[in-house]
């Protein structure tokens, strides 16, 4: 069994001026990741900053290649969202 973990560090647009605005942007992204790819996803860092967030994604699979493929697709989806600027992304496997 393999667990794949993706950490995506994001910068939100300048029109986000409060934590409430931030949560509305991040909530939509997390819901889309969960729905489209059947992964666990959550806001996992920078909780007190209103223009920055860390989104964590996890997938469990019996096959390492499948874990890698799912996380790469998730990363591409986040990178293609125009309202976020990706600062960095890191994949890990256990």
Strand content: 35-45%
Segments where pLDDT lies below 50 for 5+ residues? Answer: none
Gyration radius, in Å = 13 Å
The order of strands across the largest sheet is 2-3-1-4
The helix tally amounts to 2
Short synopsis of the structure:
The protein is α+β, with helices and mostly antiparallel strands and 94 residues long. It has 2 helices and 4 strands. The termini are close together.
Q: What is the secondary structure topology, with strand pairs?
A:
Blueprint lengths: L1 E10 L7 H19 L2 E6 L6 E10 L2 H17 L4 E9 L1
Antiparallel strand pairs: 1-3, 1-4, 2-3
Task: Offer a few descriptive terms.
94 residues; alpha+beta; 4-stranded antiparallel beta sheet; 2 helices; elongated
Describe this structure in words.
The model has no long low-confidence stretch (mean pLDDT 91). The chain starts with a strand and ends with a strand. It has helices at 19-37, 64-80, and strands at 2-11, 40-45, 52-61, 85-93. Strand 2 and strand 3 form a beta hairpin. It is built from two helices and four strands, in the order βαββαβ. Strands 2-3-1-4 form a four-stranded antiparallel sheet, with helices on one face. It is an alpha+beta fold.
């Amino acid at each position: 069994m393999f667990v794949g973990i993706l950490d995506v560090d994001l910068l939100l647009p300048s029109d986000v001026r409060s934590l409430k605005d931030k949560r509305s942007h991040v909530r939509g992204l997390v819901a889309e990741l969960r729905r489209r790819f059947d992964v666990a996803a959550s806001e996992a860092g920078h909780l007190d900053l209103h223009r920055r967030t860390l989104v964590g994604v996890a997938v469990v699979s019996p096959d390492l290649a499948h874990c890698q493929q799912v996380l790469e697709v998730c990363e591409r989806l986040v990178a293609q969202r125009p309202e976020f600027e990706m600062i960095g992304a890191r994949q890990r496997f256990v």
